[in-house]
Known about the structure:
The protein has about 375 residues and is α/β, with parallel strands linked by helices. Helix content is about 40%, strand content about 10%. It has a single domain, classed as Aldolase class I (TIM Barrel, Alpha-Beta Barrel), CATH 3.20.20.70.
Amino acid sequence: xxxTNVMEYEAIAKxxxxxxxxxxxxxxxxxxxxxxxxxxxFSRILFRPRILIDVSKIxxxxxxxxxxxxxxxxxxxxxxxxxxxxxxxxATARAASAANTIMTLSSWATSSVExxxxxxPGIRFFQLYVYKDRNVVAQLVRxxxxxxxxxxxxxxxxxxxxxxxxxxxNRFVLPPFLTLKNFEGLxxxxxxxxxxxxxxxxxxxxxxxxxxxxxVKWLQTIxxxxxxxxxxxxxxxxxxxxxxxxAGIIVSNHGARQLDYVxxxxxxxxxxxxxxxxxxxxxxxxxxxxxxDVFKALALGxxxxxxxxxxxxxxxxxGEAGVRKVLQMLRDEFELTMALSGCTSLKDITRNHIIxxxxxxxxxxxx
Length: 367
Ligand code: FNR
């Protein structure tokens, strides 16, 4: 049957993938309350569309950190994509550049920064996990820069891995025929099986729990790439990110895989945007599955969004063609949303085009 929306790829992936792999991709932490909420919070935001505006031409292009892209929809880092499809990160990189948008490569990719660069031109960011061994980090960042990556997305919500119970039950581990390619030469490319999630044990052994704001500054001394702080959920941390020299913020709860019972990212977005005061751009990921979600995020002040699970699920279903289709469907839906709410370019999208739960308790005096 024809796939008509991004969400349908999840069921197809579930049929195709080994249970251990599907569960790793799909799961959230603990009760998975935030996982559900990442979607439900979008559904509580409604539109205030404007009518009788000429929408015969719609421009979705935008600029992210100075790079022009075709739409404000980009690809979030998701680890170990070759578990989904043999082409893994190669397919994702090709689909992203065909759509003229940005791909973020995970530190824990099953293809290296050099391999992904070899797929051809494209604007790519590198997601960084900071290892205890800072020489490993410095080497990796240098390699990403040399391979033409344009920015670092520094993940700051993972001093330890969140408790994903399916991974614990399945004793999740990277299949032995695959490697965390960026770490192959550093003897950190394999994951041992453990009595827990193998990934949780790997993180406990290798990732630096002492990471702090001073390290955001340190990172700027070892690279000239701009740094996006990925995993901000509060105004307090948005202000600290600005002070620490970050080039941007990604409002993210790691796809609800870290701390459960944090708010949906779309609920946290507005306070972060206000605190950033327009000094640096704010992006969002988490639960974006519809063009209407993209519009809502932009109306609340995001400069763009990133998608995670739809990429791995569509990759599992149809490889590169699946990821292309996901990007195309979101693009088409977003364009339609703009048309039906009377916006012809991204700057036309305003706070007044939506109404949130919190607005309902306030008077409508702002109108
Ligand atoms: C992730 N995410 C993630 N984030 C990160 O910084 N480094 C990583 O290696 C990974 N790996 C990863 C694997 C899988 C399977 C998932 C689902 C997620 C988090 C990711 O970048 C992003 O924050 C969320 O996926 C966004 O939410 P949605 O779109 O999946 O709902």
